[in-house]
């Protein structure tokens, strides 16, 4: 597994702004979108290219273009929706798959309530988007769902991740690459990331 923690100064700066306790819903949404755009740029640096013929103003030329079908973006409901517009800024032609998973606050295990994965996921790179990688349960369930659907190339983007969640994915799915804004210290006894962002879903949807 390749784990890419962003070194971009603006990513670090914007995540630091997200951590503010009194941040407004508007600011949280805007920063989440901006960070999703930046991290999607990083996550797509390994997409393959092939030379293709193009009619240019100066005549026919051979130029590098994406060799494979556009990726499919997979926001994990509901917080992942806050990153979707930012990711689409980089991949405006991407197909969108949707997975609905929520964490049982007693068992800390994910529970599925919705899934809609594009039919040809087997020939696309799948890019999971979710603000937080905490225990890793929902990301693990999403990866297993995608693989069961035939997906062979999977990446995942998180704004903030805990070492425990990374370790879980690394143990069971070493072929999945992770692109992370910041790796935080640890989880608390309730499975929340420290220092973390709080409940990203509530802050994006204004349901605090």
Q: Share of helix among residues?
A: 25-40%
Assign the CATH architecture: 3-Layer(aba) Sandwich
User: What proportion of the residues form beta strands (DSSP E)?
Assistant: 25-35%
The major pleated sheet works out as: 8 strands, mixed
How many domains make up the 3D coordinates? 1
The parts where pLDDT drops under 50 for at least 5 residues are none
Structural class: alpha/beta
Structural description of this entry:
With 208 residues, the protein is an alpha/beta fold. It has one domain (3-43, 70-205): Rossmann fold (3-Layer(aba) Sandwich), CATH 3.40.50.2020. The chain contains six helices and twelve strands. The strands form three sheets. Strands 1, 4, 5, 6, 7, 8, 9 and 10 form an eight-stranded mixed beta sheet that branches. Helix 1 runs antiparallel to helix 2 (25-43) and helix 2 (25-43) crosses helix 3. The protein is globular.
Summary, kept brief:
The protein has 208 residues and is of the alpha/beta class.
């Amino acid at each position: 597994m390749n784990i890419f923690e962003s070194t971009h100064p603006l990513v670090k700066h914007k995540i630091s702004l997200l951590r503010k306790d009194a941040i407004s819903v508007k600011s949280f949404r805007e920063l989440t979108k901006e960070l999703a755009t930046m991290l999607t740029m990083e996550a797509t640096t390994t997409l393959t290219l092939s030379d293709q013929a193009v009619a240019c103003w100066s005549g026919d030329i051979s130029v590098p273009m994406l060799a494979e079908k556009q990726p499919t973006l997979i926001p994990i409901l509901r917080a992942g929706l806050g990153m979707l517009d930012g990711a689409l800024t980089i991949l405006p032609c991407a197909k969108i798959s949707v997975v609905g998973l929520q964490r049982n606050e007693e068992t800390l295990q994910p529970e599925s309530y919705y899934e809609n994965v594009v039919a040809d996921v087997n020939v696309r790179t799948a890019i999971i988007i979710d603000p937080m990688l905490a225990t890793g349960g929902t990301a693990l369930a999403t990866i297993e769902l995608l693989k069961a659907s035939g997906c062979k190339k999977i990446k995942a983007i998180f704004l903030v991740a805990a070492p425990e969640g990374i370790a879980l994915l690394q143990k069971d799915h070493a072929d999945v690459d992770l692109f992370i804004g910041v790796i935080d210290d640890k989880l608390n006894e309730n499975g929340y990331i420290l220092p973390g962002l709080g409940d990203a879903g509530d802050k994006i949807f204004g349901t605090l």
